[in-house]
């Protein structure tokens, strides 16, 4: 995680839940929110990862707790939200980040895809988002303020050959945000998704990454902090009139 020296209290009093925050993009988002005053609940299916990130954010002067659990399990989601409410207060920011990085998805022709793969993708990329939203929406509408952001993918926005299950499940999560935005806007809750291009993995062949980066107009892959910066804007007061959008964070790879 990048250490941002400039800290603000713009999110003071806000409680944020970031899923899949034990590393990578999720950890960067958690760090950016904590660095701006939010009380952050760090979720990950691996308890040790969640605890490590929470401890690091606390050591930096932020407010963070670990909130481990499998967000594809509705009972686990309900438990996580209850525990956060008890320890930190009412959740007003939800970032649905848990997922499998696109670089980890095997390419499979649609005619050869396994229904079990489709079920697994939709459990994580669509139903987990649904479970989390069902738990936090009553809290947010009660507060009269809320921000829900779902991390999506350009694969879901524009399509991708041999990745139909992943693309379709990501598209469904983004579509859910657009529908909820219309339903929840009068209650002060905004809902958006960020459509990501390729984010540089923690470790990979540097030559292969450089070759892939040449496909982008900015000539580099995305970094976790690029995503975290966009999240911070959406949850700020300045992002309050933006809702129901799927915003590309992709270095100009696709402008459609």
TrEMBL record:
The keyword Repeat does not apply. The keyword Oxidoreductase applies. InterPro entries: KR_dom, NAD(P)-bd_dom_sf, Sc_DH/Rdtase_CS, SDR_fam. It comes from the Bacteria. Residues 14-202 form the Ketoreductase domain. GO terms for molecular function: oxidoreductase activity, acting on the CH-OH group of donors, NAD or NADP as acceptor. SMART domains: PKS_KR. Keywords: Oxidoreductase. PROSITE patterns: ADH_SHORT. Belongs to the short-chain dehydrogenases/reductases (SDR) family. This is Putative 3-oxoacyl-[acyl-carrier-protein] reductase. It comes from Gordonia rhizosphera NBRC 16068.
